[in-house]
Each structure stands twice: as structure tokens, then as C-alpha cells.
Write the C-alpha cells for this entry.
Amino acid sequence: MNKTDKKIWIYRGLALIVVIGIAAAMFVIGRGHTIYFDNKSAEVGGTTIDAPYSIEVYVKGEKAAKLKSGERGMADTMGQTFDMQLVVTKEKGGTSSRVNVSLPIPYNMDGVILNLPVLLAGKGPEDYLTEFIPTPSAEEEADEEVVTDETGDLMDFGDE
Amino acid sequence: MNKNNISDLMRRFSVPLMFVLICAVCAPVSGLSPSYLANEIVTRMGRNAFLILSLLIPIMAGMGLNFSMTLGAMAGEIGLILVCDWQIVGIPGMILAMIISVPISALLGLFCGKVLNMAKGREMITSYIISFFINGIYQLVVLYMMGPIIPIKHTSIKLPRGYGIRNTVSLLSMRQKLDNLIPLTIAGIKIPVATFIVVFFLCLVIVWFRKTKLGQDMRAVGQDMEVARDAGIDVERTRIISMVLSTVFAGIGMIIYLQNMGNIATYSSHSQIGMFCIAALLVGGASVDKASIGNVFLGIILFHTMFIVAPKAGTVITGDSMIGEYFRVFVSYAVITVALIMYETNKRRDKSKAGKQLALEQEAANE
Amino acid sequence: MSEKTQENSLKGRIQGFVKTFGLPRLIITGFLILLLIVAPFVGADLPTQISNIINRFSWNGILVLAMVPMVHSGCGLNFGLPLGIISGLLGATMSIEFGFTGSMSFFMAALLATPFALVFGSVYGWLLNKIKGGEMMIATYVGFSSVSLMCMMWLLLPYHSPNMVWGMAGKGLRTTISLEGYYTQALANILQINIGNLSIPTGAILFFAILAFAMWAFLHTKTGTAMTAVGSNPDFARSAGINVDRIRLISVVMSTWLAAIGILVYEQGFGFIQLYMAPFYMALPAVSAILIGGATVNKATITNVIVGTILFQGIVTMTPTVMNNMIHLDMSEVIRIIVSNGMILYALTRKTEGTK
């Protein structure tokens, strides 16, 4: 193996490492989660935490949900940390306070339920965070005939 | 000589001219507003340009229209299906899908290049059959191996029977993420700036590639394989590289195409993609042995205008919506047929011309 | 010592056999035999299976036979088969439109299809003479264009027979037309033999045999040998005073006409006329069948047709039942796609002497 050959192989190796690095980075920053927010009263360690009258959830400056007591909202997010801004109104007609929240999301959970009152009460993630396990809809359960007909989609040219 | 040039020009631009006429007649009849049309064409330009550009390299290498670009499309789809199951979303998801698709496309391109080297002189029909053959393999992988062998977790994309992928896979988490990355609207027309930047970048790469040593070799191989071989070019290797490049670009193009569509038709998205990309390129004035970047964009504008207006115009004229649908399918196939016939007749004429030349020279030498 | 040479020669003979027969063909034959052996053990009824294969053979045989003339004259595999099929469909629909019923409608369909096949075949042949060397790709696209053109025509042509047009609109042909009361099983019912679960459509097979024999006889006439000469060495044929273009034209017309008759025979077995996009890919099974039978891009015999059709249809009919019974997993469609297209690929990549 002569010198230029060696050089080329080193470059190739480096390029491969860079690509794998990018792929790994994509796994981390691109992981999508669905976040469900609950504004519900909950019991943690024997004490009951009451839900406030309403919570407004802002994600990236946009309003994602406005939750009255006992309601649930949702938002899609990308990456390992989730930032949101909560506008909490304790009682009807009362003044509201703003809270910025940033929290890590476990990698292996597709859907995450956050109990906002517990979160605001300053408890740990084991109390406010639970995994959302979707129940398959009847539509998803229904058997599906796979269509691989060669002539079936000759008319399909990418129209919506 | 001059006269010859004009007739040559006429021949080269006869297909685009015909399409301009079809569009000019059908567009007003269809009753579609110009702003709607412009919007649609800009969207389709972003959606298809990358895919069609991937056809240019094999043409340069003299391998004709690459009907097996569907191989790349399949690789892209496999990448997207996996990324979807891993729940990697948005632009990172697309990039990851591309990274996954590249080795698959490269392998398929390598296979395709090797097979085509065994079938010199009938590359097109062979590449056409390869696309069917690999479609069988693709179905084997996606329909039977995804689930038990390649783990697929989510029931939203896996068939209820436990293996195989559903007919459609939703790409909602990636839908038009690239198109809308840099939002821009001019005069009510939404312009997918980021997609155009990617396409522009590929154009630059192609222009640059033509000037490299490899690009020059490729053109030499395209002109005359024997001469190139005598000049010390590894013809087989060059041809394989051109197929690999084309397939890899097609895979990336397919991912861009599907992020715009917003869902994958698992078993059919790729099947017709080769056909209508080729038709669009030919409509833009390309031929089997000569195509430029300009042909790609002109082709998209003309071909897709026809595609949008024909069904509506057909409905208005005949009162049957299907007529227009069939008409545009017919036109796509007819365009390819005519282009192929023109290519073959030109080739024969050149050959006989060269033969006559040779005979004349020999005669002269004998005297 | 002598034992060793014998062994060597046996080995050589086997190698020679593999070489002439072709490895893929050997694998496919082995696969079919395996299927036939396994079938009874997994609960598939062998006589039913065999009569299925025979039936399918009788439907498809002529479509495969249509490949022969063009291969002989050096035009390559006729990927433009759909053009001939369209002539057949025109004959079939016109026969019904004019009110013929029963077996008579089959005869009339064949008769009415003939002029179309001759005209289309001539134009197609003329075109292929203009583009020698690039026949197969252009043939494919001629087929596609004609099918998509006819899609419009099926809607626009003035058909009125209530059995064929859409009930609501009163015009435009349906995608599938039942042949009940027309020529369904018209040939198969002639002299049909039924033994238990085994049934043999004698008439349809006889019809195929007649055409195959006629083809064989034709290839031994003066024009037929000229055709073979044109296929194996056009320059030599030209210098021997053969009008190459004319011979090629004849072969294309023959192929187109056989395709027209072939689709009618297929329909009488299947029981339906399929219009619109249905003929689109019909060339591919026929092409791969003849290749499985041992033909190459420029050499095909009647034996290739018969062996190939039996092997191809055998695999197509046997795999679903056997696999379903065995592992409850129907992969037959995928296997069919891979086998048939793989076979075509194999043939296209073989080095062939003479013409391309």
C-alpha cells in the first residue's frame, strides 16, 4: 500500500466516522415525543395537590393548550429536553403567574404524561411523569389487506 | 450546414413545443386559476427536481434513461420506514433516513451497475427489468422481514398480523418540514426555499462533477466505450460509479419527495416514480443521450402543467373525468416512446453515415 | 484408471447438461418437482393441483407461443405483446356487441380480431424495422402507449351492449366483462375429460397443439427457414438475397396475431374479459415463461414454449397452496415476481452471438 492510498483510506475512515457521528446526533436531537399535559388533582405521598383553575401552556412561544381543571392537552416535541412556559391562574378571575419549565424526557418513551400541578408543586419526575401507552383503535386492530397489485397504481402520479 | 442546424434544433425542441401547445390549449379550458397553477408547479418543482436530477449522470455515461432509479426510491422508503418506527422526527429524521438509505442505494446501484455491464447495448430494458426484480426483493423485505427480522415496534406502521408494513405509513412528523424550514410567500405563492437550496446544491455538484477527471471519463465512456478503453479508462468501473451515484441521489430525492407528500404508499410510491421522472425529463427537451439541468426544470414546468390541467380539461371537454386521467397517462408513455424511437433512428442514421464515410475513405485510399 | 475417466466424463456430462440447461432453469425445475412431492403431504390434493396446472397451461400457452416468431427473426422478446392483446380485446368486444353468443362468439371474436392484429402488427413491424437493435425497449413502450390509448377508447367507442357497458351511464365499457353466455369454456368443453378430481380441457389443449404444430411446420417452410436465417445472421441473410425487413415484418405480424388469439383463449378459460390497465404487464409472464422453458433472446423452439409454460404456471399455481398449507404464509406473489423477473434478467445478461 503506498502513501496516497493510505491517505485516501484515512480520509474515507474519517468521513465514515463523521457520518456515523451525524447519525448518532440525529438519534438524540431528532427523537420525537408526544407530551400530554394533565391539569388534574393528584395524591403524592399522602398529600393531595389541587389543580389550579386554569393553566395555559406555551411551547416555543405558541399556545399549545389552555387547560381548565381536570383537562388534558397535548403537544409534539423533538429532542431530549422539553421547554414550556406555563401561565397559571389559581382561581377564576384571580391573577396569573408565569413559570418557565425545562425538563428532560426519557428517551424510550414515545408518549409522556405530565401532571402539571404536581410538577408545579416541585415534586420529582417519578411523581409527575408517567408513560402514555396508547390503546390501539379499532381501525388499527382491523386486519388490513396488503395491496401490491402491479397495475393498481398506474394512475398514481403523486397527486394528493 | 446552417439549414441542418435549424432542423436539428426543431427536432430537439419538438417535444417541448408540443407540450407548450397542449398546455396552452388545456389551461384556459380547465378553468384553473393562474395562482393555483403557479402554486402547484412550484410545489411540484421542489418535490420532483432532485429525483429527476439523479437521472442526468447515467445519461452522461451513455447508459440511457435510468429506469432503475426506483431502486434508490425503495432504499429511501426503507430509510423512512425505519426512522418512523424509531420516532425520529422533523429534519433530523430526514437526515437520518438519508444516511440509512445511502448504503442501501449504493449496494443496489452496485448490483445494477454490474448487471448492466453484462448487458451492454440493452441497458434500458435491463434496468427496467431490474426495477421489477428488486421490487420483488423489496416486497420480501418490507412485507415479510420487517417485524420478525428487522424489529418494528409501532402498531401504527406494522400490520396487525405481526409482520409486514401497512399500505400507508404516515409521515406526519416530517411532513413538509424541509419545505417550510425557511417560510417564504411571494404573491400568494408558497416557495419551499430550503428544498430549492438543496436542489440548487445538487445542481452545483453535477456541474462540478462534469469537470472532474471522473466526470470527463464518464463522458468519454458515454461517447464511445472502445475509444475510452483504449485511452486507459476503466470502462466497467466508471459505468458502475455512475449507477451508484444515480441510485444514491434517487434515494435522497425520494425522501425529499415523500416529506412533501406526507405519507408513504409502501407498495406503490416507488413503482411509477421512474416512469414519470423520465417522462418529465424528456418533455424538457432531453434525449436518451443528452440531457442538461435546464431540461429538468423546463420538463417539470411543462409536464406537470399538463398533468394538472389535463384531467380538468378532459372533464370539461368530454364530460368524463376519467378521459383526462387516461389522456395524461397516455401522453407520458407516448412521450417516452417517441423519444426512444427518435434516439434509435438517430443512432442508426449516424451509424450509416459513419459507414458511408468509411467507404468513401477506403475508396479514396484505393485510388 | 478407467473408472476415473468414466467418473470424469460423467462429471463433464453433468456440467455440460447444467450449462446447456442453465442453472436457474434447473433450480426452477427442481423447485417445481419439490412442490409436487411436498403437496400431498401438506394436504393439497394432487389431481386438483395437476388439473389446475393443465388448465392454466391451456389458457396461457398461445400467449407464450406468440413469442416464438419474433425471437426467430431476431427482433428479441416481444415486450409489445399488449398490442396484440388489444387486437384480441377489440375482436372480443365487437363480437359481443354484434350479438353473437355461445361458441359462435369465440369464432367471430377471433375473426374480427384478425384484421386489427394484421394492421397493428404491420405498423408495429414497420416501426421495429426502423429501429433495429433497440427493439425490446421500444416494444415495451409501444405496448404501454397502446394500452393507455385504448383506455380512452374503451370509454369513447360507441359500444351499447348492456352486458358490457356501465349500467348507470349507458356508455363506456366496464373494467371486467363476464363471458357467461358467450364463449366461456368454449374450447375447454370440447371433449373434456373428467376423472375424479382430474379434469383436462382437451379442446383448448388441442387448439394450442394445432397452432403449435402450424408454427413448427411454418418454421420449416421456405419463409420459416429464411426467418431463422435473418435471426441468426442478418448480414448473411441479406447477401443470400432474403428481404430482411419483409421477413421481420411477417414475424411481428404473426406474433401480434397469435397474441390476439392467445388472449381470446385465455379469456375463454378465465371467463372474463379484462379491459383498461389489465393488459399492461401481460407481456412479462409470457416472456419469462418462454425463457424458463430454455429459450434465449435469439433462440426459441416449440419445446421451450411447452416446457416453459408448464414450469411457470406450475410454480404460479402450486406455491400459494403449498405454502399456505405448510406455513400459513402466502409468499407466492413475491416469489413469482422474483422468479419471473430474475429469469428475464438472467436471459438479458447472457452473451448472445449474432444479433443483440
About this structure: Chain C has a mean pLDDT of 86.
